[in-house]
């Protein structure tokens, strides 16, 4: 197997905490530029735009890098916390 970033990330596992996402996007009409940037910046591809131009998140696969938390900290559009114990990403090292 080639050693691409995608192949390395595929080695990680993720345990979904059904019904309790650890990141939420607050309801909005028009997303800020910061929030819109997350569609392209999130390394796990968790953010997307819906047909109304609003930004949504599916936190499954989140690597807990904290980028969205930092980028959107001044806009108040994201509620961010770590997953509950036993849930979230399981990194494979080596
Ligand atoms: S913490 Fe990182 S991986 Fe998780 S949703 Fe935010 S930007 Fe994406």
Describe the structure.
- Strand 3 and strand 4 form a beta hairpin.
- This protein is 21% helix and 19% strand.
- Strands 1-6 form a two-stranded antiparallel sheet.
- The chain is an alpha+beta fold.
- It is built from 3 helices and 6 strands; from the N terminus they run H-E-E-H-E-E-H-E-E.
- The chain has one domain (5-90): Alpha-Beta Plaits (2-Layer Sandwich), CATH 3.30.70.20.
- The relative contact order is 0.28.
- The mean pLDDT is 93.
- The radius of gyration is 14 Å and the shape is globular.
- It has helices spanning 5-10, 33-41, 67-71, and strands at residues 13-15, 23-25, 47-49, 55-57, 78-80, 88-90.
- The chain binds iron/sulfur cluster.
- Iron/sulfur cluster binds next to helix 3.
- InterPro entries: 4Fe4S_Fe-S-bd, ETF-QO/FixX_C, Fd_FixX.
- Residues 53-83 form the 4Fe-4S ferredoxin-type domain.
Helix content: 10-25%
Pick out the low-confidence regions.
Answer: none
Spatial separation of the terminal alpha carbons: 15 Å
Q: What series of H and E elements makes up the topology? A: HEEHEEHEE
Indicate the CATH architecture: 2-Layer Sandwich
Question: Could you tell me the mean pLDDT?
Answer: 93
User: How would the global form be characterised?
Assistant: globular
**Approximately how much beta-strand content do the residues carry?**
15-25%
Count of the domains: 1
CATH fold node name? Alpha-Beta Plaits
Enumerate how many helices there are, as a single number.
3
Number of strands: 6
Provide the structure class.
alpha+beta
> Compounds present?
iron/sulfur cluster
Largest sheet, strands/sense/barrel: 2 strands, antiparallel
Keywords: Electron transport, Iron, Iron-sulfur, Metal-binding, Nitrogen fixation, Transport
InterPro entries: 4Fe4S_Fe-S-bd (IPR017896), ETF-QO/FixX_C (IPR007859), Fd_FixX (IPR012206)
Domain 4Fe-4S ferredoxin-type: 53-83
Protein name: Ferredoxin-like protein
């Amino acid at each position: 197997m080639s050693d691409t970033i995608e192949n390395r990330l595929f080695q990680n596992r993720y345990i979904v905490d059904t019904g309790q996402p650890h990141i939420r996007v607050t309801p909005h009409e028009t997303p800020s530029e910061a929030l819109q940037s997350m569609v392209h910046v999130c390394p796990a591809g968790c953010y997307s735009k819906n047909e109304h131009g609003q930004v949504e998140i599916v936190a499954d696969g989140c690597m807990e890098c904290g980028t969205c938390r930092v980028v959107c900290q001044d806009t108040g559009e994201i509620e961010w916390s770590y997953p509950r114990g036993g849930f979230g990403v399981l990194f494979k090292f080596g």
